[in-house]
Write a structure and sequence with these properties.
Helix content: 25-40%
Order of helices and strands: EHEHHEEEEHHHHEEEH
Number of strands: 9
CATH architecture: 2-Layer Sandwich
Length: 297
Amino acid sequence: MGNAETKPKRKWGDRRDGRWVKAPGLQTVMGYLLPKRTDCEVYLNDTIDATELMAYLERRNAEHPDYKTTLFHCAVAGMARMVKERPLMNRFIQGYRMYERNEISISFVVKRRFADGAEESLMVLKPRDEDTLDSISRKIVGDVRETRRSEHATGGVDALLDGFAALPRFVLIVAIRIIRWLDFWGVNPKALTEGDPNYTTILASNLGSIKCPAVYHHLNNYGTNSVMITIGTLHKAEVLMPDGTKQVRDLVDIGATLDERIADGFYFARSLRLIKHIFAHPELLEKPIGEDSGFSY
């Protein structure tokens, strides 16, 4: 895979955020039989061995004590690489049609303060082919710091949502119906979709940062998001190794909710295997995501 990224020329039937692709017969019919994304949720839960990754982070952060790379940064970089190598994970169904996104996008929520009642802010990261763990980590840290400068929304999708919330109830009901109609046909204004996690490849939740285990999170019928991933708390547990010995390893639980219409279970399982491989070989995160990992399935 090369590093140069070019958006495909828009053709009839394409959306601003994705190109129309012809799906296999089963997936096409499923789109009509089960038009709602929440009717097509499949759940995946697994425990990933993060021992090698944590050792890697310890070495990396010791070399750069002024700049800390975290497990979540690695997870986001790993997700970006997985989607790049597994392009069906970057698809969505809307308006009874299958689309493939023009770019990879990963969104997550930032708590402005770790306190009850503190506001949350929505953030979207758009990794490019040339991005590595270092550049992705720095983007996340920079955006989070900027977000936490204020305890209140300062613009973007947060301010837009506050504006909608201030409308009278009957006006808001009509406005939402219009927006959902535009969403169905893929003609929503960019101002309504830019920065909205409902329009991203993966909506990730770092529950480990609040000492919470991984959970299953529903998808939404609004928007185009087809993959939701939660990352739980890092913990130690005794594991039976392939050679029959027992070792205490660093483990992290993940939970994923996916739209089964975009791919089959075999494809999802292989995508998870790639994530596990990346955690076991964290040096891959130093390569640009546009460079193939060489993982053999």
